[in-house]
Amino acid sequence: MEELNILPQKIYQFKCDPKLLEDTQKKICKIKWHENGFNSISENGYLQKDESFTKIHNWFHKCLVKVKEEVQFQATDIKITQSWANRQYYQQFHNPHKHPNSVFSGIFYLSHTNTGTTFLLKSVWQMYDHINGLSGQPLHYWNPDDRGMVEYTVEEEPGKLIIFPSILEHGVKPMMEDNIRYTMAFNSFLCGKIGEYGMFNELIIDIK
User: Fold this and answer.
1) Which pLDDT belongs to residue 6?
2) Which of 23, 71, 99, 197 has its CB surrounded by the most CB atoms within 10 Å?
3) Residue 162: how many CB atoms within 10 A of its CB?
4) What DSSP state is assigned to residue 89?
5) CB burial class (10 A; 0-12, 13-18, 19+) of residue 182?
6) Quick one: residue 137, left, alpha or beta (phi over 0 = left, psi -120 to 50 = alpha)?
7) Is the pLDDT of residue 142 over 90?
8) Distances in whole angstroms, Cα of residue 89 to Cα of each of 4, 100, 112
9) Residue 153 contacts by C-beta under 8 Å, 6 or more apart in sequence?
10) Residue 25: exposure state from Cβ atoms within 10 A (0-12, 13-18, ≥19)
11) 12-122+155-205 adopts what CATH topology?
12) CB contact at 8 A, 195 and 202
């Protein structure tokens, strides 16, 4: 028997200017943090409105626009709605999650560890829970974890930005290094003129 890997997916990555990266690294170390037991999150969840982070968010916006154009979303603009920072110490982690009320999300790596970000997608063998026309009972496998989720871990490096659909599940496994892991993350939403007037699906959204 031979396995065939089908339907490859893609997300997008960008590389930050070294000077902008260094400037952002210095500023991240000075912000206030909230400890939640398994990692730390910046107290400010609107870092995009902090003037000291204007330059990095301007770059994030340029990258978002490139992705919007690449995937051909019909909207005049896309803007960051929330932006925050994450900090992890030894054995700290972030459970798998998705980002609601957002179209694209991004992760910007400020340090280097071997942890990375793990993305998860339901296996094609788990995409149906019932067989139509039969009893309606859920299908069960002897070992459901064996076929449940497909994983891919993006390696991290300082200055790398990844942008992905906000509905894509992702998380961070326990960091097994005596180091401090810093990242920034953001959500975004389409804005300006969305859709088409003549097709009666137009929206005008202003994000402040």
Assistant:
1) 83
2) 99
3) 19
4) -
5) buried
6) beta
7) no
8) 39, 26, 13
9) 116, 117, 118, 119
10) middle
11) Jelly Rolls (2.60.120)
12) yes
First to last CA, the chain: 56
| Residue 88 near residue 180 (C-beta atoms within 8 A) | yes
| Amino acid making up residue 64 | L
d(CA 52, CA 25): 12
Using a pLDDT cut of 70, give the percent of the chain over it: 88
Return d(Cα 49, Cα 47) in angstroms, integer. Answer: 5
Could you tell me if 93 and 37 are in contact, meaning their C-beta atoms sit under 8 angstroms apart?
A: no
CA-nearest of 170, 176, 50 to 113 is 176
| CA gap 159, 2 in Å, rounded | 39
Q: Under a CB-based contact definition with an 8 Å cutoff, are residues 183 and 108 in contact?
A: yes
Say what the pLDDT of residue 201 is: 86
Give the pLDDT band of residue 202 (cuts 50, 70, 90).
confident
- How many other C-beta atoms are found inside a 10 Å radius of the C-beta of residue 75? 16
Q: How far apart are CA 72 and CA 67, in angstroms?
A: 8
Beta bridge partners of 171: 118
What the block records as the tokens of 127 is 């995409």
Residue 102 is predicted with a pLDDT of 97
Query: How much is the pTM?
Result: 0.89
Question: Hey, is 31 helix, strand or coil?
Answer: coil
* CA–CA gap between residue 116 and residue 4 (Å, rounded): 26
